Inverse folding.
């Protein structure tokens, strides 16, 4: 059955292995199932929920588009655009904010993590981020949303918002309730410096992540310095339970090789980390280096990237403006 796919990535710089293995790799697989209609968005409105340097933001919007293309998203097959170019996203977000309950948003763990201790100083945008995310998805009648495990709670909220809008305005099925597509294994890649912290763009330590623009030397150096524990690699996957760093590195290796964790565990059973790290660095280089080279090449052609985003925005706008018009009529505008 054909699926309508929508997903987004924030142009906040340093796109990393977690973004790739948790989300973008899956975008490409879904695009390659020919019957699917795919829309991939550079979510720049989401990016400004935390302070951005305008010049950097502009650069990062292009870099995110370049990363999509370098990873295998084909602009001839999928729509690639940036969110701020389609005004329906902001309009729908406002309408849906008036439908969503504060109690629902208060439960969002990402806000708690990102706002930190001083919640009073966080922006209102950071708090209502998941409502904008719901608007993004619902404007396109997306049936499936491929995301990393960290976005699961936001998608559940999106489903609740869609159902409440349909109920409040007596419009059953007007907003389509989407299904999350979260990989069963390796859906959350952890920091190379701390196996219980998510690999993240905003981590101040560049050694905590493999960037999709890293070269071979950077990859080998980061994996060499990645945190491990003093034991040899285990004989069985169940013995990884209290060894988050070992589990993360073996998970990354398995995901790169498209194989079960059990197979990777048996491949390195009883071996020491240095031997495994060598193989992991090779596997990473094989996948990341061509992406990194392609990103750098694409970034030299700003005109091409701007054209892709402009054409994608036109296509997205055609779909979204129709939906927002119907939404406004339902609301009574
Ligand atoms: N560590 C991760 N493991 C698996 N998936 C991940 N994603 C992000 N980090 C991991 C998935 O990548 C997609 C795009 O994410 P995003 O950039 O829009 O937002 P994010 O989740 O806030 O990413 P970061 O790296 O953590 O950014 P900062 O540091 O700016 O907050 C999403 O599908 C996400 O699940």
């Amino acid at each position: 059955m054909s699926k309508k796919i929508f997903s987004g990535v924030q142009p906040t710089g340093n796109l990393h292995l977690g973004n790739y293995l948790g989300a973008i790799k899956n975008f490409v697989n879904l695009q390659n199932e020919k019957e699917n209609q795919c829309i991939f968005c550079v979510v720049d409105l989401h990016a400004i929920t935390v302070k951005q340097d305008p010049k950097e933001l502009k650069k990062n919007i292009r870099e995110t588009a370049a990363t999509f293309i370098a990873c295998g998203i084909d602009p001839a097959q999928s729509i690639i655009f940036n969110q701020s170019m389609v005004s329906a996203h902001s309009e729908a977000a406002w309408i849906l904010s008036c439908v969503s309950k504060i109690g629902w948003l208060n439960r969002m763990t990402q806000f708690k993590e990102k706002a930190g201790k001083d919640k009073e100083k966080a922006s209102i945008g950071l708090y209502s981020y998941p409502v904008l995310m719901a608007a993004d998805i619902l404007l396109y009648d997306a049936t499936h949303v491929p995301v990393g495990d960290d976005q699961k709670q936001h998608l559940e909220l999106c489903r609740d918002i869609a159902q409440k809008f349909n109920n409040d305005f007596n419009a059953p099925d007007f907003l389509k309730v989407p299904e999350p597509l979260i990989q069963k294994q390796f859906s959350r890649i952890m920091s190379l410096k701390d196996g219980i912290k998510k690999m993240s763009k905003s981590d101040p330590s560049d050694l905590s992540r493999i960037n999709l623009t890293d070269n071979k030397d950077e990859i080998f150096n980061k994996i060499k310095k990645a945190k491990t524990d003093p034991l040899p690699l285990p004989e069985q996957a169940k013995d990884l339970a209290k060894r988050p760093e070992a589990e993360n590195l073996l998970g990354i290796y398995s995901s790169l090789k498209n194989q079960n964790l059990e197979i990777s565990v048996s491949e390195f059973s009883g071996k020491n980390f240095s031997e495994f790290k060598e193989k992991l660095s090779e596997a990473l280089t094989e996948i990341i280096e061509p992406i990194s080279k392609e990103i750098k090449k694409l970034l030299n052609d700003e005109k091409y990237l701007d054209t892709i985003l402009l054409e994608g925005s036109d296509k997205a706008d055609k779909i979204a403006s129709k939906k927002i018009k119907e939404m406004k009529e339902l609301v009574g505008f």
